[in-house]
Amino acid sequence: MADFKGEKLVKTLATKKVYDYIDTEKGINQISREIFLNKDQIVHYPRGFDGGEKYKTIKRFTYNGFKGKLPVGVFKSENYGWGFTKPLYPFTDYIDDNYDFDEVVIEKGGKVQMDLKSKKLYLNETSLDVLQNSFKSIFKKNRAEVDFVLQINLHKIFPSSIAPPTKTYISDALANSLASWGNSIDEFSDADKNAIKDLFDKLSIGTDFLTSEALAKTKELVDTKYIQATLKKFKELMALRTDGESLEKQWQVFLKDNSWIFSSIFAQPVILFQREAYVGGKTIDNHNGKFNDFLIKNSLSDNVSFLELKTHKTKLLEKTAYRGDDVFSTTKDLTGCIVQVLNQRDNFQKEFYATKGKSKGKGNFETFNSKCVVLIGSTKDLDENQKYSFELFRSNSRDVEIITFDELQTKIESLQKVMTTK
């Protein structure tokens, strides 16, 4: 008897035709397919490579309504043993390992459901198309990456014979990669973050890709996240308990890195002109030069302002009352800070034209009764009597505005509330 490999019609009944798959060389002889005659239904019986069962539990695939033209995602030839195609193997393994289905029912336009009671998995052509496209892009991406790495190394080994590879992008690769993201920024490496930033910059240029509305929404989201991160860092600094030069430097760095906060402090459109700016006052022997913590410039009028910074732990008032129980003196730190910023402004204005002339190329600036601000201490450390004394002192300080760190925190929180309120 000659060797035979393939399907063979073994039964023709009133309702269906039955085919067996026979491979005389491997000794396979088992049911393969049923074609129903009085309804649009085909049944496949999956077969392993060497015969027997292909899956742990799935015994049959039933197709309804396809008129002989089967959907994507399934084998259409008996030579492959029927069942799901190679790109869907991850899906097949998952179903086979975690469920006890004995039949897969695929109906054109039909339902998608796991019927655990009847041990049936229901799919349709749309769900198969989604699975096929998703896994197909992953297989293509993996294949492309392997080929790319191969080409790179072959070029390194045989630079004169093999050209370097050309970068090609596999469609849907980005979507599938981002689908596995757990929504934590910690999952991204610095390279990931830079790549996303570069991609967004490039896409933002093309208005046909991102609409103005989409860009505005994205900016709103970025701004909100940025304010949240800034507020978190602000609160971390506020929680520090050790005062001193180190803490003051940390606040200086924070305000430099988040210079947009100055607009909240000065209630006008301002920019950071310079940190630790020279404001004059040197003697003939080059001593006693004055430096201001922050020199701020109004972005519209170019008028400069002066900000002197202490820390949130700096005491505003003396612990004991100066007289009675409701009159408290300001600390030397607060009065010293006020005198210092006034002295800086005075020196700056006296030497304004000389300073401005020597600063050509660093931006224009003017001084029109320049504003002075001191950022210092916290009102949370004051009792009611002390707050009364502090407000009396502050409200009568005409040339210097005094702002506390807890008040600045409230300003940022208010901005956050505005950004997040729909």
Structure summary:
The chain is of the alpha/beta class.
Summarize the main sheet.
Answer: 8 strands, mixed
Give the overall shape, derived from the CA principal axes: elongated
Please state the structural category.
alpha/beta
Could you report the average pLDDT, rounded to the nearest whole number?
Answer: 82
Backbone CA Rg: 38 Å
Protein name: Shedu immune nuclease family protein
InterPro entries: SduA_C
Organism: Flavobacterium ardleyense
Pfam families: SduA_C (PF14082)
Q: Secondary-structure map with pairings?
A:
Layout: E1 5-12, E2 16-23, E3 28-36, E4 41-44, E5 60-64, H1 89-98, E6 103-107, E7 113-115, E8 120-123, H2 125-157, H3 173-179, H4 190-205, H5 212-238, H6 245-257, H7 261-266, E9 270-280, E10 290-298, E11 304-309, H8 332-350, H9 352-358, E12 372-375, H10 384-395, E13 400-403, H11 405-420
Helix pairs in contact: 5-11
Could you explain how this protein is built, in words?
- This protein has eleven helices and 13 strands.
- The protein is of the alpha/beta class.
- Strands 1-2-3-4-5-6-8-7 form an eight-stranded mixed beta sheet. A five-stranded mixed beta sheet has the order 9-10-11-12-13, sandwiched between helices.
- Strand 12, helix 10 (about 385-395) and strand 13 (about 400-405) form a beta-alpha-beta unit.
- Helix 5 runs antiparallel to helix 11 (about 405-420).
- The protein is elongated and about 115 Å long.
- The protein starts with a strand and ends with a helix.
- Mean pLDDT is about 80; it is low at about 275-290.
- InterPro entries: SduA_C (IPR025359).
- This is Shedu immune nuclease family protein.
